[in-house]
Each structure stands twice: as structure tokens, then as C-alpha cells.
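Work Package 4 report. The design task specified in the project plan requires that, given a folded chain encoded as C-alpha cells, an amino acid be chosen for each position. We show below one input record used in the internal validation round.
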């Protein structure tokens, strides 16, 4: 059974008003368990609207969303339970912290799940460790911490519910390169250590190249592509028509290839590029 199945989903904002907007237009999507998946698309393409259906925060105008075979909108109880199993971390989650201490903020979800104090504590410790928040920060007010720390605390709050699917909407938005690299590495670590499925939403092809196994391209409220990073990035012409460009690293390597350098195709990250260039130079020296 697939982890997520979206069948013929239509969602319209402000239906029957002059501002009505079809944000999702007959979407079909299947996600299997495991790995890091990325939803990519231009601003306004419908990414955030789509993911809010996966944990029943939004109710479709038509169509059905299944999580492990269960219709997430079947009843109020099902929708409520689904929110613990599909953890959703909104874009700029640091603005949604509200408790007095870091500990209480991370503990909010597990508390709502009805766990006992010991279980809550274990969940908080583990989630904090996923995002590099050390226990010496637990009694501080989240409002005294840096923006990057606040974002990580908000992420930990969702991870603490131990969801089967963790969804992060634009987790690197607005971060400097260092903060971005840090967040991406925490996400990869989380996937390794928890073994849970992760879905990130991004409009950065570089982010996707660095951490995703599978890519879903959303364009104008529809699924335009779904496949491995390699498959999707090889369709750069179609992507650019959707306002998406393949990573800068890929473009540099493609340019070198065009100029006759014997480098492999399908290079997406700086690390891969460095390896390829190293091998090329080494090979060149041995000739
Ligand atoms: N609350 C809302 N009311 C009306 N229109 C909205 C609302 N939220 C999003 N939209 C519109 O729905 C479309 C999809 O938005 P969204 O899902 O936020 O896209 P993305 O996350 O890809 O940027 C856009 O045209 C956007 O303007
Ligand atoms: Mg969005």
C-alpha cells in the first residue's frame, strides 16, 4: 500500500466569489514510503495548498486523499489522528512559537497526543537532538534565540510527534548559505536516524539536488513531473518553461561538457562536481 495517494484532487480558494482561484486542478499523486521527496514548483503553483491536504488541514472541493489507505477526510476523528501521523511544519515556522520555554514548545505536540511525562521527555530529547538543540537551551525563552535556532525548535516540535511522514514547507527559505546547509544536513540526518519518510517543499533546485531522492514538479495546480532527481533534471528545457532552472553546478558542468571537457552528465551537487573534476584532472595527468 502506498503511503500517500491523492486522487483527482481539486481545491478552489474563495469558490463563488470574484476572487475564486483554482489552486489544485485534478491532481493525482502517489508517494511510496521512505526517503526524502521534494515538491518543487514556481511560487503560486500550488505546493503549500497540496501539502495542507495531506494532513487534512484543507478539505478538497472534490477528490480524495488517502494516507496508508485511509481517506484523511473520512471523519473528524480520522482527520485529528492524521495530524499526528503526517507532521506538517509550515513555512517560517519560527513565527509560530508561543510557549515560555524551548522545552514546552517542543513538548506541545507530544502532550496533545496524550503521552505521559516520561514519554514526552524522551520525545523532546530525541527531537531536539535531530536539529542540534542542546538541553542547556531547554529552559530559555525561544524568543531570546536566533532565527535559525527558532526554526530548528519549530521543526523539533513536529518531529517530536514522531510522524510517519514529515512535511517541511520551504525549510531553507530566508536562510543564509550556512543556515541552509545546516538545515539540509539536519533533514538528511533525521531521515537516516528516524527511518521516516520526509517530504520537503522547495523552489530551490539546489536544495532538491542536495537532499532529495525523488522529485515532484508542480506547475499551475497540476503535477507536471515525478521521478528521480536525474530524470527530472534532465528535462531542463521543460523545467525552464515552468520558471525552474537546474542547479548552477549542473549548468557549469554542462557548459564545460559543451566546450569539450570529458565530464559525466547528471552532476547536480558541488560535491559531485568536485569529484568529477578531480577524476578528470587526475586522468588528464596520467595520460
Ligand atoms: N488563502 C488564499 N486565498 C486565496 N488564494 C490563495 C490562498 N492561498 C493561496 N492562494 C492562491 O492559490 C495558488 C496556490 O498557492 P500556494 O499553494 O500557496 O502556492 P505555492 O506554495 O506553490 O507558492 C496561488 O495562486 C495563490 O495565490
Ligand atoms: Mg508555498
Amino acid at each position: 500500500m502506498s503511503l500517500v495517494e491523492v486522487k483527482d484532487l481539486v481545491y478552489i480558494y474563495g469558490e463563488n466569489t470574484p476572487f475564486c482561484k483554482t489552486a489544485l486542478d485534478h491532481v493525482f499523486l502517489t508517494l511510496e514510503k521512505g526517503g526524502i521527496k521534494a515538491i518543487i514548483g514556481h511560487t503560486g503553483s500550488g505546493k503549500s495548498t497540496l501539502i495542507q491536504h495531506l494532513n487534512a488541514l484543507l478539505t478538497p472541493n472534490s477528490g480524495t486523499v488517502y494516507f496508508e489507505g485511509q481517506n484523511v477526510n473520512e471523519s473528524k476523528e480520522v482527520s485529528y489522528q492524521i495530524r499526528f501521523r503526517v507532521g506538517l511544519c509550515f513555512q517560517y515556522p519560527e513565527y509560530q512559537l508561543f510557549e515560555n520555554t524551548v522545552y514546552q514548545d517542543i513538548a506541545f505536540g507530544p502532550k496533545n497526543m496524550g503521552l505521559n511525562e516520561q514519554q514526552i521527555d524522551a520525545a523532546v530529547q530525541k527531537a531536539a537532538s535531530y536539529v542540534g538543540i542542546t538541553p542547556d537551551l531547554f529552559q530559555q525563552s525561544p524568543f531570546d534565540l536566533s532565527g535559525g535556532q527558532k526554526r530548528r525548535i519549530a521543526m523539533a516540535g513536529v518531529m517530536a510527534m514522531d510522524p510517519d511522514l514529515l512535511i517541511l514547507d520551504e525549510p531553507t527559505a530566508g536562510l543564509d548559505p550556512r543556515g541552509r546547509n545546516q538545515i539540509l544536513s539536519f533533514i538528511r540526518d533525521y531521515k537516516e536516524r528516524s527511518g521516516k519518510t520526509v517530504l520537503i517543499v522547495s523552489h530551490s533546485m539546489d536544495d532538491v539536488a542536495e537532499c532529495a531522492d525523488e522529485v515532484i514538479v508542480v506547475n499551475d495546480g497540476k503535477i507536471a513531473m515525478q521521478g528521480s532527481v536525474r530524470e527530472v533534471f534532465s528535462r531542463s528545457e521543460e523545467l525552464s518553461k515552468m520558471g525552474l532552472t537546474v542547479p548552477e553546478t549542473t549548468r557549469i558542468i554542462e557548459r564545460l561538457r559543451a566546450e569539450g571537457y570529458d565530464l559525466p552528465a547528471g552532476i547536480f551537487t558541488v560535491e559531485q562536481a568536485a569529484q568529477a573534476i578531480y577524476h578528470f584532472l587526475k586522468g588528464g595527468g596520467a595520460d
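Strands lie at 4-13, 21-31, 36-40, 62-67, 70-71, 86-89, 165-169, 197-202, 214-219, 222-228. Validation will be extended to a larger panel in the next phase.
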